[in-house]
Amino acid sequence: MQHQVLINTARSLMAPGKGILAADESTGTIKKRLDSIGVESTEQNRQAYRNLLFTTAGAEEFISGVILFQETLFQKADDGTPFPDLLTDKGIIPGIKVDMGAKPLAGSPEEKVTEGLDGLRERLSDYAAAGARFAKWRGVIDIAEDRPTDYCIHVNAHALARYAALCQEAGIVPIVEPEVLMDGANSIERCEQVTDAVLDAVFTELKRQNVLLEGMLLKPNMVISGKQCPQQAGVEEVARATLRCLNRRVPAAVPGIVFLSGGQSDELATAHLDAMNRMGPQPWALSFSYGRALQAPALQAWRGQADNVPAAQQAFLKRARNNGAAARGEYNADMESAA
């Protein structure tokens, strides 16, 4: 019975033409976002911004789920409706970010390991009671000349699988997010090599810890050139390399893959997803779980002003619609200039 609930939720999150809004910025990250538009990061302003996103009319046509930060899970909309209830009423599944962030890895302090397993079973019980039906945990893998080490890959894969097993025990679908960062000067070939090793380790650990693959989603990076790399791979090359890597390592039992945008521009993240979906059916559905790439235009349009809410909602709806089209392989650049 529990297995079927997990499978049904995972499939609902992968509904055709829909993806996931990552609105789970930690207190530090949302402060940076609000600082960028000159808005103070108070609880009231954070609530107002999330309220703007969640009450956007029509977004439910393209958004299947929203990942919330712990603070947001327990906040209410302007009309007093708890955010999880507001989303559920629109047919959007509420989720929750459960990790406690990446910290320096003991013995290899230039690398990171994600913390938050202590007390996670109890927290998951509280989150489920508050309405969360899926969760997210992000592992961070950096590429440099001597990184990542096998040690770093292994401890992050182990933690991701521990988290996933605890989620499924609580009836919550885990989104497993091993992110290979794109900040370096590495080539796309090096990114593919590292991503391959990371996914291999992650699925080995998931199997060891008896995680039900049909009741989870994968949230990986795309295989892409590092930001500092002088030779940037084109859209088709990124799509081909990403699919080659995923087909090599991700079992067909996984119902869906929701990509992170990883610092790509809004339009490039959409174009990459579209290109992959145009390359024919894959063993798993391919969609998005974007944060900044869905929100950036809305944030710029809003700037903390109540009068700007309609314009900000239009900007968010446009990005949701365009990414929904990319999830079907039906996006084209002309949609960016359309009103």
From TrEMBL:
<dbReference type="InterPro" id="IPR013785">
    <property type="entry name" value="Aldolase_TIM"/>
</dbReference>
<dbReference type="GO" id="GO:0004332">
    <property type="term" value="F:fructose-bisphosphate aldolase activity"/>
</dbReference>
<dbReference type="GO" id="GO:0006096">
    <property type="term" value="P:glycolytic process"/>
</dbReference>
<comment type="similarity">
    <text>Belongs to the class I fructose-bisphosphate aldolase family.</text>
</comment>
<dbReference type="InterPro" id="IPR029768">
    <property type="entry name" value="Aldolase_I_AS"/>
</dbReference>
<dbReference type="Pfam" id="PF00274">
    <property type="entry name" value="Glycolytic"/>
</dbReference>
<comment type="pathway">
    <text>Carbohydrate degradation; glycolysis; D-glyceraldehyde 3-phosphate and glycerone phosphate from D-glucose: step 4/4.</text>
</comment>
<keyword id="KW-0324">Glycolysis</keyword>
<protein>
    <recommendedName>
        <fullName>Fructose-bisphosphate aldolase</fullName>
        <ecNumber>4.1.2.13</ecNumber>
    </recommendedName>
</protein>
<keyword id="KW-0456">Lyase</keyword>
<dbReference type="InterPro" id="IPR000741">
    <property type="entry name" value="FBA_I"/>
</dbReference>
